[in-house]
């Protein structure tokens, strides 16, 4: 994988509450032209869902998000994660993610945090929480002093606001929950998710 940021204009950020939904969800995203997913560790079913996707739908690149501890990094890796995403970056967490050898996007919200990642040789990061932390205007300002940083903004981004982010030189993709919202997953509305994925893939 060359870069997580180049897989799709939008990475669907999802909460899977029932592992049985994982495979049909993965297939709906693929059918819509989105080859990547970020499964957040915000439910008890998350690790089982990740393992099912990795095993049964290997053509979908499954990442694991909301990683906040080294133990979670280890569990996500064992479950079959292809990349790792965290909301922020403590030294212990960054060390644990680096040790896996997998691509990872540590979360940043300030210029100092971005510079700290650059000190570690990390140039690709998650900007979180994107809309609350300043949105496209903030990222446009950051691009001047830190042109080597590439970001995946996540948090509060909608289908309407995504193009404003994607137009920026320092944004590779965005993370969004609108493609596969929890209610659509619970309802098994795979047609709606496939349609949203098609629209996202075209951004």
Automatic annotation (TrEMBL):
GO MF entries: (R,S)-4-hydroxy-2-oxoglutarate aldolase activity; 2-dehydro-3-deoxy-phosphogluconate aldolase activity
Keyword field contains Chaperone: no
Summary of subunit composition and partner proteins: Homotrimer.
Lineage: Bacteria, Bacillati, Actinomycetota, Actinomycetes, Pseudonocardiales
Keywords from the UniProt entry: Carbohydrate metabolism, Lyase, Schiff base
Reactions catalysed according to its record: 2-dehydro-3-deoxy-6-phospho-D-gluconate = D-glyceraldehyde 3-phosphate + pyruvate
Keyword Lyase on entry: yes
Name of the coding gene: eda
Entry EC no(s): 4.1.2.14
Species name: Actinokineospora xionganensis
Protein name in UniProt: 2-dehydro-3-deoxy-phosphogluconate aldolase
């Amino acid at each position: 994988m060359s870069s997580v940021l180049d897989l799709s204009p939008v990475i669907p950020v999802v909460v899977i509450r029932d592992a049985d939904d994982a495979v049909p969800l993965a297939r709906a995203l693929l059918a819509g032209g989105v080859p990547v997913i970020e499964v957040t560790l915000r439910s008890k079913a998350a690790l089982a869902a990740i393992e099912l996707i990795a095993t049964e739908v290997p053509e979908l690149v499954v990442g694991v998000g909301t990683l906040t501890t080294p133990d979670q990094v280890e569990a996500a890796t064992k479950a079959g994660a292809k990349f790792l995403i965290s909301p922020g970056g403590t030294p212990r967490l960054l060390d644990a993610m680096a040790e896996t050898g997998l691509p990872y996007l540590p979360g940043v919200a300030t210029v100092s945090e971005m510079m700290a990642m650059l000190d570690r040789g990390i140039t690709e990061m998650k900007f979180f929480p994107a809309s609350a932390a300043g949105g496209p205007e903030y990222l446009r300002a950051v691009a001047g002093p830190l042109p080597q940083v590439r970001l995946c903004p996540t948090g509060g981004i909608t289908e309407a606001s995504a193009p404003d982010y994607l137009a920026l030189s320092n944004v590779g993709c965005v993370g969004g929950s609108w493609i596969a919202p929890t209610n659509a997953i619970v309802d098994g509305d795979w047609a709606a998710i496939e349609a949203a994925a098609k629209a996202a893939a075209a951004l």
